[in-house]
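Morning. Coffee machine broken again, so started the prediction first thing and wrote up yesterday's gels while waiting. Chain of 297 residues, entered below exactly as on the submission form.
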Amino acid sequence: MSAQLPIANHQSPITSKIAHYWSLTKPSQSGLLLATGLAGYMSARCPVFNISTILQLSVSLFLAIAGSTVLNMWWDRDIDAKMGRTQKRVTSKGLVSGTEVMQVGLLLSVIGIGWAVAMNAQYGLVVFAGWFFDVVVYSMWLKRRTCWSIVWGGISGAMPILAGRVLGLGSIDWIGVMLALGILLWIPTHTLTFSMKFAKDYSDAGVPTFPSTYGLAATRASIAISSVLAAAAMVIAGYGIGMHWGFLRLLGVLSAGLLMLAVAITFKPSERVNFGLFKYASIYMLAAMILVVLEVI
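Came back before lunch.
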């Protein structure tokens, strides 16, 4: 009887490495930020059938976002290894070398930002600003020093929608600023909710958070206030865009839901309410982006 041969691993080293680096780009998060950039472009009444520009916007913005995300993973690999929710990342497990991760992150960033600058100087400048605030100001400088780092991280998250509108208009206007403000104020709903749920992880890694600095009550109040202000900014931006009354009214109804959850998290806090607001805020922002796009179709 012949010996049984071992089952071969059909995944090649190259395929495996690509999968590792794809996970480091955080596809869902990067995709959502890209969606805001496309919505920003559409908000300038740019035609959806301008395929060449839309494709170049998508590729350049995604590469810049992915590059900054990979560099964040490279910089934070030591603290990620100490946190339960991030210990399975390929950088934490040592499945990729730190030097290689840095090189890939820089390559993606240079191509993405360079492409953006080649398309339009002002668009490229805003894309670079988002990258700089995320990688240098937020991750490298402030994340391990102060809980207020999330504000600067929020600024980086607000840049894609502003960049998209700048590409469509050729300049920065108050509507673009309001759209960016809406994203900036929406981001704490995510980051602060995570900081409450994974408080021990952040403590183990030595990363200061709002709950550890100011307490749970102040953190919940901050989430509620930022959520309401984010909704107000999006409604004002929708009005400025000239959004159809039906769409604007729907955005108002969705904003009212956000307001009710904000009140609930303030006066009747619970983990269920916290994550209810977390999930609804994501749905709300996605719906707002869809309404912006539908308005110009």
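Confidence is low (pLDDT under 50) at residues 1-8. Going to sketch it on the whiteboard this afternoon.
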